[in-house]
Amino acid sequence: MPATPARCPECGAAWKEDLDCTACFHQMLAWETEHPDLGRVHHLMVLSYHLQHPSLYSPEGLAYARRLLDDFVAGGASPPDVRRRNRQAVDSGRRDFKITSRQGRAGGYPVPVAWTMTAVDVVAGGPQGYLANVEAWARAIHADLRGAG
Ligand SMILES: [Zn+2]
Fold this sequence. Notes:
By secondary structure, the protein is an all-alpha fold.
């Protein structure tokens, strides 16, 4: 009987041997360290990974991350734009929630999202395809979340 490949309970990615989503995340970080040029999509990579593993966020953090993705993908914002805006929000005390999940306070989607691209796909494209693949991944997540409502 052929072994059924394990799937990520959060993003649904089919894991290859020894390559689960956490391992993919660390592989992507390692490529960004080895090839500093790849670091320019770091913000999209971290955001994409966390949006597909929403239990890493608090419910408020997830809502914030979705707005951030929309700013980057649809609004064309750059990381400095967002940092500037965040600084203003933090200075004025408007951001009064925790981004990361705490016990019993994890983010999630009301209905499961059918993701068209996952961290496993990005890693499969290797470091040479990394920049284009991370950008495609972020755009796919934006579209998938729109489709899910
Ligand atoms: Zn996953």
